[in-house]
Amino acid sequence: MTTDPPEAPGSAVPQPAASAPAAAHRQDSSRAQAPQGAAAATGATQIIETGAYGQAGGDGHSTPPGSGGGDGGGSGPEGPAGGGTGDSGRKTNRKAIILGAVAVVLVALGVGAFLFIQNMIRGGAGSPEQVAEKLIESIETKDAIGLVTMVAPAERDALDKFQEEFMDKVEEFGIFEAAGKVGEDSVEDDFDDEINLDGITVTFENVEPTVTEVDDQLAVLNFSSGTVRLQIDPEQTTGAVRSGLEASGEMEPVDETADLAELDIEGEGLRVAAVEDGGRWYVSPVYSTLELVLQLTGNERGSLPEPTEGSGSPAEAAQALVGAVPGILESGKFTDLGKYLMSYEGNAVHYYGGALDEAMEGGLGTDVQITANTFKDADRDGDRGHALIEELTMEAEGDAVSLTADCMESGSEKYCRGDSGYVMTNGSFDSEATMSAFPQLGLSSVKEDGKWKVSIMDTTTDLALQWMDTITREQALAMLDLARSEDAAGTMTLDEETELDFNSAGYAVMTLKLEEDTTLQGDDDGSSYSSYTVYSKDGKEEITSSDELFADETPAGEYKVVIFAGKEWADEFAEKGNGVQHSGTVKLQEKESPAAVDFDSFMSSRAKIDGSGVMQYNYLTLDEFPGPTEAHMLNVPEGTDTELLVIVEGYAGAWEKPGTLVLTLDGKTHKVPVSNDPEELKIPVAPGTDQELTVELVKGDGSGEEVDYTLEFVEK
Questions:
Q1: Residue 265: band (very low, low, confident or very high) from pLDDT cuts 50, 70, 90
Q2: CA separation, residue 491 to residues 51, 558, 626 (Å)
Q3: Is residue 196 helix, strand or coil?
Q4: Would you state the pLDDT for residue 554?
Q5: Residue 330, Cα to own-chain centre: how many angstroms?
Q6: Is 354 in a helix, a strand, or coil?
Q7: pLDDT tens per residue, range 61-88
Q8: Percent helix, strand and coil across the chain, each rounded to 5?
């Protein structure tokens, strides 16, 4: 029953494909795989990949067949059944289809109404029983207005505020026009004020929900009797629903009926929470979600304490909540937090916070002290207000963190926010740059019965809106992968340096004309630019990019190129924010293939071929992909005097206690410890034979689950 808004741009949103570094996952340019064609042409020592995955993906790792490699085009199960067979598989998938489709109905109706129906009547129902009746009626008749008026005002209001300003910003930036220009027409469908569910019918029969009135403010509706029938005619659907069906390949008609008892959780039926507000009863998506968690965890529902008095101002309310945190951590009673929240949120904590109380039983065992705790009132709008941190200092076990609305300080490190919420993953951005993207830190409160209490929903909304106000149109386009919709500012010529003016999002859009088929590469150390992507002239189709390890030739023709700036722009943006005005020189050139060399030449000058001498870069994980094992075929020409150098290093500093990389070659087993530091091992190899090398990652006692390793032939 939850209705989530469309996702807004986050403060640290990953850059679109055009701006990602060329080796974004585990490797850098010094660890790229060597071009094997040159070695193969001369009979030089080779490492020929013959394991489960035989091609390099976009991140430099092996890619399973059918996964789509680096383009995200992997194929999934065909049809609703996912390729499974047997009655149990059919039952499971039917249940999933019905649950998913009902969710689509609720979300589409709810989101559509939330987005575009403003200043709505209070709605609701006179009793919990009437809530159940109206809920079923609204779903069956696809009555969006009726459904949204059944949602609790406390949840509706904060979302309504965000959506109104969000859509104003979308219109101001011309996001829909930009998306349509490059063929992303479905984007606007997701926000269509005419969202409808043509082609979808949900019918309930013999549904008699049982109502449990917990108290005078909460009732739980349990749907465990009757049937629900779902009918979908994909050819009759429109807008976002049609786009979703086409994207998933689910264009076959659906007509399924299921007992509601079969769609239950732990044999207890489907639960919907209803809450009382101002004498009327409403559906609560938040409480309904928490009821689901309650079912899954088996915890008991709590009860409400006597109402507590609030504070005299938003600043005092914020101070009271923060001041209570050390006591809550010491006692382990998370539910005490509810005393300081607006009644709707506080009640949720008291009803459903028992699981956290249980987890925190006895407290955290850490002495946390707040030595400074002052807020100052900022904006007020009727019964809603916002307070900013003036000074907040927390100490634990000798370490202290101090906050103001604009800065965070810990020991010798101090980070302060800037004037822009934009974070580009390229360049030299780090934690300092991320901190600079935060909005001013504070808490929002709601006035109830003349007193103020903190609201988590309002705080989240206000912080999101503050962040959104710092984003420029160019930055929004970059984060939505729509930089390619911009008109080109000029023309680049192959093999010639071009002066580019990078905008507030750190990109420039240019035209590139190629007279003949060309394999492109950049010519830069990352200072002037970090990446480029070549699109068709209209920006609708990606042709190639610097992300590709082994790019194909780009046919002769005219293209649009989006180039993202590098370290120099990043440094200037960190200093000047959205007012940055930066130019840089960029050259795109034809990639030169390495000349064929004999083995002796290769061994003495392999840096000329791949820049590092690394023949094969590999990555293993205990997770499903690429998995913990791999196989290689080693080909060592007759008359060579080499051995295999293996360099092993645990990934991401997660190996608290060493694991092991087990290598088996010619019937002999070799073990290399896997820790946070590089480990080396040299293994003798027999010339003139093809030998299979198997590699297996074995977990240690710590948390590490990933390893990088390289294989390189070196002279004895």
A1: low
A2: 45, 10, 42
A3: coil
A4: 92
A5: 33
A6: helix
A7: 333 323 333 333 333 222 223 333 333 3
A8: 30, 30, 40
CA–CA dist 538, 540 (Å, integer): 6
Contact 679, 648 (CB under 8 A): yes
Task: Record the tokens describing residue 197, joined without a space.
Answer: 């569910």
- Here the contacts of 525-528 (C-beta below 8 Å, separation 24 or greater) are 526/566, 526/567, 527/566, 527/567, 527/568, 527/584, 528/565, 528/566, 528/568, 528/584, 528/585, 528/586
Q: Which residues contact 159 (CB under 8 A, 6 or more apart)?
A: 5, 114, 461
Instruction: Give the residue among 613, 608, 581, 620 at the shortest CA–CA distance from 704.
Output: 620
- What per-residue confidence (pLDDT) applies to 24? 33
Helix runs in 211-362, H state only: 239-248, 285-297, 314-331, 343-352, 354-359
Q: Tally Cβ neighbours within 10 Å of residue 91.
A: 12
Name the DSSP class of 235: G
User: Bridge-partner residues for 369, per DSSP?
Assistant: 395
Give the Cα separation of 342 and 349 in Å (integer).
11
pLDDT average, residue stretch 132-139: 84
CA distance 321 to 341: 8
Backbone angles phi, psi at 686, to 5 degrees: -95, 120
CA proximity to 137, closest of 209, 220, 224, 232: 209
* Burial status of residue 196 (CB atoms within 10 A of its CB: 0-12, 13-18, 19 or more): middle
Dihedral, CA atoms, 545, 548, 553, 554, nearest 10 degrees? -10
Question: Tell me: the pLDDT tens digits for 489-524?
Answer: 999 999 899 999 999 999 999 999 999 999 888 776
Of 41, 22, 43, nearest in space to 33 by CA: 22
One-letter amino acid at 434 equals T
- Calpha distance 491→258 (Å, rounded): 61
The identity of residue 227, as a single letter, is: T
Rounded alpha-carbon distances, angstroms, from residue 483 to 61, 299, 583, 591: 28, 49, 18, 26
Cβ 483 vs Cβ 15: under 8 Å: no
Which amino acid is it at 523?
A: D
Token reading at 476: 């929004």
Q: Is the dihedral of CA 376, 378, 381, 384 positive or negative?
A: negative
Q: Which two tokens stand for residue 147?
A: 């459904």
Mean pLDDT of the chain: 76
Q: What is the DSSP letter of 253?
A: -
Pairing of strands 507-514, 491-493: parallel
Tokens, residue 459: 């705080």
Q: State the Cα torsion 693-694-699-700 to the nearest 10°.
A: -40
C-alpha dihedral (431, 436, 438, 442), degrees to nearest 10: 110
421, two tokens: 């919420």
Q: What is the distance between the alpha carbons of residues 66 and 309, in angstroms, rounded to a whole number?
A: 61
User: Contact, 296 vs 266, CB < 8 A?
Assistant: yes
The stretches of 361-490 forming alpha helices (DSSP H) are 431-436, 456-468, 473-479
Residue 577's nearest CA partner among 451, 416, 462 is: 416
Task: Please name the residue ranges forming H helices in 611-714.
Answer: none
CB-CB neighbours of 555 under 10 Å: 11
- Integer Cα distance of 669 and 299 in angstroms: 50
**Cα–Cα distance, 258 to 55 (Å, whole number):** 44
Q: How far apart are CA 546 and CA 532, in angstroms?
A: 6
Residue 463 pLDDT exceeds 60 = yes
- Provide the pLDDT confidence category of residue 46 given band limits of 50, 70 and 90: very low
